[in-house]
Design brief:
The protein is α/β, with parallel strands linked by helices. The protein folds into two domains: about 130 residues, Response regulator (Rossmann fold); about 90 residues, Winged helix-like DNA-binding domain superfamily/Winged helix DNA-binding domain (Arc Repressor Mutant, subunit A, Orthogonal Bundle). It is built from eight helices and twelve strands. Helix 2 packs parallel to helix 3 and helix 4 crosses helix 8.
């Protein structure tokens, strides 16, 4: 049974999320500020953290930064502002998804289930993985000065390793494996994030923006298709 940590200073929001989460079969622990959330993460393991940004004592960004020092538990961030700056700041800290208040509880639960579903196989794989034998064939993609090691989840730009967030890795890998194909926003969100398209493509666009920044001169490989989505041209 998935364990959720819901962190929000508004009791009504916590109660609403708990109601829908428990209906879906999840167990819920609540925290009313960032400091409580960090302390709980030091004591317990959770499958997902739903974290508000605007909170007293310790805001969501600061709490996320502290949690990431001790745990790689997926984090879904809530915000009443919905500004692009918030999204970029959250994704750079390793947030998995972002939902703007007011939100649909049903959509929130779909996103929660999708994140948990994708995180569990990755976690199990990481726990079971041993050092691969020297003879194991590595899957590597190269284009000019861009090198992507699918097997080791490494990305190099002109010989220098660049660090991507988990979703940035997933997005880049999916686009490369489907290079030279027009990928709609709906398809990218469905395949990379794991849930149906809800009409808000800002999360995808923000990840593309961050990914382009990290790829430097090789951001040219990511082509924007107006009104459609993106294509990795190589």
């Amino acid at each position: 049974m998935p364990k959720l940590l819901v962190v929000d200073d508004e009791e009504k929001i916590r109660a609403l999320i708990r109601k829908y989460a428990e209906f879906k079969g999840h167990t819920v622990t609540e925290a009313e500020n960032g400091m409580q959330a960090v302390e709980l993460c030091r004591k317990e393991n959770f499958d997902l953290i739903i974290l508000d940004i605007m909170m007293p004592e310790l805001d969501g960004f600061s709490a996320c930064r502290e949690i990431r020092k001790i745990s790689d538990t997926p984090i879904l961030m809530l915000s009443a502002r919905g500004e692009e700056y918030d999204k970029i700041s959250g994704f750079e800290l390793g947030v998995d998804d972002y939902v703007v208040k007011p939100f649909s509880p049903k959509e929130l639960m779909l996103r929660v289930d999708a994140i948990i579903k994708r995180a569990r196989p990755a976690k199990a794989s990481a726990e079971e993985t041993t050092v691969p034998p020297p003879t194991e064939k590595r899957e590597i993609f190269k284009a000019e000065g861009l090198t992507v090691d699918f097997t080791g989840r490494y990305v190099y730009v002109d010989g220098q390793q660049v660090d991507l967030s988990p979703k940035e890795y997933d997005l880049l890998f999916y686009m490369i494996r489907n290079r030279n194909i027009a990928l709609t926003r709906e398809r990218l969100i469905s395949e990379v994030w794991g849930y149906d398209f809800f009409g808000d493509d800002r999360t995808l666009d923000t990840h593309i923006k961050l990914l382009r920044k990290k790829l430097g001169p090789y951001s040219k490989f990511i082509t924007t298709l107006r009104g459609v989505g993106y294509r990795f041209d190589c």
